Amino acid sequence: MLDYSSTALGGIVMLGFKYIKFDPMVYVIHYKNGKVIREGRGLSFFYFAPNSSIVAIPLGSNDMQFIFNESTADFQTVSIQGQIVYKIEDSRQLAELLDFSVDEKGSYKNKDHEKLNQRLVCEAQTATSAFIQGLTLRESIRSAKKIEEKIITGLKASNAVSILGVTPLSVNILAVRATPEMERALEAETREALQQEADHAIHERRHNAVEQERIIKESELNTEIAVEEKKKQITEKKMEAEILIEQNKRRIREMAMDADIAVETLRKSLIDIKVENDKKEADSQGYTLTATLSPYKDMDWRILSAINKDALDPRLNIALAFRELAERAEKIGTLNISPDLLESLLNAKNKK
């Protein structure tokens, strides 16, 4: 904000001549009889008071606080409080529009310089009026940043501001507030909404807890199902393995039986061949024996016994004699055989 305190040091007064000195941040214009004698920053000089006028314009950035009221789209009043930072670019031009003349002590002679702040506030309010009127109370309270943009844009585009030789640097909105009654109403409504949100959050937490518990239970059941499924698969695999083992055993038994059958078949063939060979051999032997015995079949056994190689054995002859006796037993009345004869026969047999 403009510092409208003393910006010059009053000095010596001699017969209407005075001395004045200004700070470096003050642009000074010395008029004499309506003409500019000297101008510049931080001047110090003697001047003749009766025909001189001195204008002092502060330079650098200036801070200006403002507050004004506007109506929203829902016919509610909001107060906008903020700060405008600006800089005086053209001191000569501003001096031509507003009176910044000072006395010999450096104090402003009138309050015409305060019109600068008022004009900037008016331009800021004009820049935000249409914007605020298009918003509801809630929206306007939350639109501080957009209000800042509207004001700085409006000030930079304003012809009135540019004519004053002023350049706006920045705008800060400190507060956008409703009336006390509406603030209390909004607080109550917001408090109720927050309570509802808190209740909803509690409900959601409970719901989430139940949902999480359900998910955990479902996960446990899914795990149990998966375990049982794995057990079932393992059992099925074991059964399949046992079936394969039994099938292999059966195949081995079948192969063994096939081998046994093949062996028995071969054995049967061998036996058949052997029987056939034995039969042929027997037939051959029978034929040989028949051919050999054929000359003797019609001969009396006595003759055969006589031609036997053991025919000279006395015992054989005695045996033949007994046979002859047996054949003619009906003709023999009494036959006496001595024990000595039998003993001699038996002894001869044992010795032999």
From TrEMBL:
Record domain Band: where: 28-204
Membrane topology, as annotated: Single-pass membrane protein
A biological-process GO annotation: proteolysis
UniProt KW keywords: Hydrolase, Protease
Designated name of the protein: Membrane protease subunit, stomatin/prohibitin
InterPro entries according to UniProt: Band_7 (IPR001107), Band_7/SPFH_dom_sf (IPR036013)
GO MF, one example: peptidase activity
Record organism: Candidatus Magnetominusculus xianensis
Predominant localisation class: membrane
UniProt subcellular location: Membrane
Domain of life: Bacteria
